[in-house]
User: What shape does this take?
Amino acid sequence: MSKLLAVGTVAFDAIETPFGKTDKILGGSGTFVGLAAAQFGVQTGVVSVVGGDFPQAYLDMMNQRGINTEGVEIVEDGKTFFWSGKYHNDMNSRDTLVTELNVLADFTPIVPASFKDSAIVMLGNLHPLTQNSVLDQLNEKPKLVILDTMNFWMDAALEDLHSVLKRVDVITINDEEARQLSGEYSLVNAANKIHKMGPKFVIIKKGEHGALLFNKEEVFFAPALPLEEVFDPTGAGDSFAGGFIGYLEKTNDISFENMKRAVIYGSAIASFCVEKFGTQKLEEITENDLKERVQKFVNLVQFNV
Amino acid sequence: MSKLLAVGTVAFDAIETPFGKTDKILGGSGTFVGLAAAQFGVQTGVVSVVGGDFPQAYLDMMNQRGINTEGVEIVEDGKTFFWSGKYHNDMNSRDTLVTELNVLADFTPIVPASFKDSAIVMLGNLHPLTQNSVLDQLNEKPKLVILDTMNFWMDAALEDLHSVLKRVDVITINDEEARQLSGEYSLVNAANKIHKMGPKFVIIKKGEHGALLFNKEEVFFAPALPLEEVFDPTGAGDSFAGGFIGYLEKTNDISFENMKRAVIYGSAIASFCVEKFGTQKLEEITENDLKERVQKFVNLVQFNV
Assistant: This one.
């Protein structure tokens, strides 16, 4: 069985939405990616760092879901990365209230020996040099490297970002970030320019408006499921990415046709994620739930001409 | 052969976009609806009003495309409705520079005798009382009544709008207007509330993010085609509506399954409309162009699980 490696944050989040408010709960991109990929029963290793304040119970839960946390370094005298945010009424924008980097400030990811031969590697939203250092530790070039990034790194480390992009097969990025990275307003033109930076596949996430998957010749569109209520959008993008790579890993097929399905599975898992606070819903969904949800996507867009 | 009736404006537009600027050109909701429906070779009657300044050549062009303009009243000593607008760089917002109602101020639509038995009736974005008066003139309840409206009428004539909505089968409305009309942020909840006002089918237009078609149990999503360039968005919503009803009229089938196809055809025609200024592109497209464009929509969303 081949393996999946995800580098990202494992963190505490405190979230406020129009529906309620949480204390510090489990969060982080690595956590969401791992829990989403775990839906496919693949062997997923998460590389991250936490402090001595991080509950063993969270690691136990991740292990029970099939996530290997050998690569989650525990800095006993440090504190876990903490983010706090408040969503506006439209759920499409949020204010960051607190960002405490803590142990993340000095994070140097170390890929466990048992995951140096991973077939699929997800480079979560971290400094591009950190992302590059993960690739340097692998035995050989993985079958597929996926990178997530954000406007912060385009402002602060654009040259480094361009350097790691050359080594990446798939980039996931939101629409505004795609526009910033490419300097193009049209997402078609933006994807064309980003292809030239390295990634053969460009996934542009549009939140409640779905996601576009581009290769150099074709484009595929996956809608977001129209929901009565979005309870908490935190982690939706990471759940999407985790579902995408989990499906690719499970099916062992990185053709464009299969990537279309992977984008639908990622969208399905993201649609679950937003139904409850934090990782709660991802910890509950069953194989059957996922199957039914994917069918809803089929019904949503299927037509015959 | 059954008939299609469209009530709306026939007007002059002067448009400025980041790509260029026009003098007064042909515009108006009735014009775009008629030209879009005409792609399907159905018998379409437009009811509207113009002034003595309206070029006969425009009417000739509409007639040549198969549009019956018997219902377009010409007020010889009046001036044609004129709108001028400037689009912002993102093409999603615009400033209205000039609105001269002119002959539209006293418009009382008169349905020609030959179209009083129309099977499908499109009530373009006009005062709800004007929309109501059109329905009153028909011999019998049409097979399908489609209504377009906007926030202006929700602010100025909400009670009248509710009155006409009771007589309507399909409403087309944009996302912000759906939220205003229903008082619900979630589009799923908005559609549920609007169903209760009368329309069995609710189409929520999201511009570059596509369109949602709801009946009381199901939802269908049609994406917008990702385009390299949107040249001029004027008339896209009306072209969508015209394509939708033109397809329904041609196929003589108002089942939900066929409405899905109609929404795709409407989206395809709207995607042509935005490629050139005003009605220019709608005057050029062939049956084969349309077929190819619809295939692009199939490719855009088609996947197998």
Q: What stands out?
A: The interface with chain A takes residues 89-90, 185-189, 206, 209-210, 212, 218-223, 226-230, 257, 260-261, 264, 294-295, 298-301, 303-305 of chain B (CB under 8 Å). The longest strand of chain B covers residues 43-51. Chain B has a mean pLDDT of 96.
